[in-house]
Amino acid sequence: MLASLITFLLFSSSNLVVAKDSCNSFADYPAEFSSSFQQPVPPNVNNEYQASWVQHKWNTNVSHITAGFLYNSPAAGKVRVDEAYEMTIASAIFDYTNVSSDGLVSNILYSYSPTIASKPTIFSDYVNSNFPLFTKDVLKVNGAVYTGLTTRDKIGKVSSWSIMYQNAIPVTVFLDGCNTIVGYDYFSPGLRTRVVTEYFNIQVGPVSDEVFKLPS
Ligand SMILES: *[C@@H]1O[C@H](CO)[C@@H](O)[C@H](O)[C@H]1NC(C)=O
Ligand SMILES: *[C@@H]1O[C@H](CO)[C@@H](O)[C@H](O)[C@H]1NC(C)=O
Q1: What does the pLDDT read at residue 10?
Q2: 6: in domain
Q3: Which stretch is the leader sequence (predicted)?
């Protein structure tokens, strides 16, 4: 009887841990300025997903606002980003399995302007990608600092985590209660550029390979 009770307790408490790891209500996250504050261990994130997104990038010379749909596939090592802005419809694939010696990522971009009846403009080169391929352990391997709970307009309550992406760019990553990335903000010191990216309508799960096919 005692043994089975212990088994039950062990079993149910481990179930509890699984449930808490996958989704939480942030009740366990410490309040800033409390005497019991201890920085939480950065969680693994859900990184296999598709989502709608909006992004605003600006500096003294540029203000670029765009929106679209994206696919993040660590299985394929690729991110596909579809976007629409000012008479342009474009689709970009970032291939993280093809990285230059200086760390730039292979990018193929098709854009159609002013209509889809136009011949596509095709760009293909290594670039500094605005759309990182997040790994499950991106927060852990980058030694993320917990930067508190906050709210995002489209998602509600989120936890926030700060990292130095590639040891060069300060990025704040936002997670919903299921540890799915729902956006990230960064400041790029080189050109003094601020970039805000928000995801919504997020579907976590494997991305079909079909998504990454290019015209032959
Ligand atoms: C790697 O990326 C470069 C730049 O986009 C491209 O020219 C090259 O064809 C790619 N190589 C492979 C094997 O995909
Ligand atoms: C903005 O444009 C000016 C003039 O072309 C240039 O000198 C300056 O470096 C640019 N600044 C940024 C942050 O790109």
Answers
A1: 42
A2: no
A3: 1-19
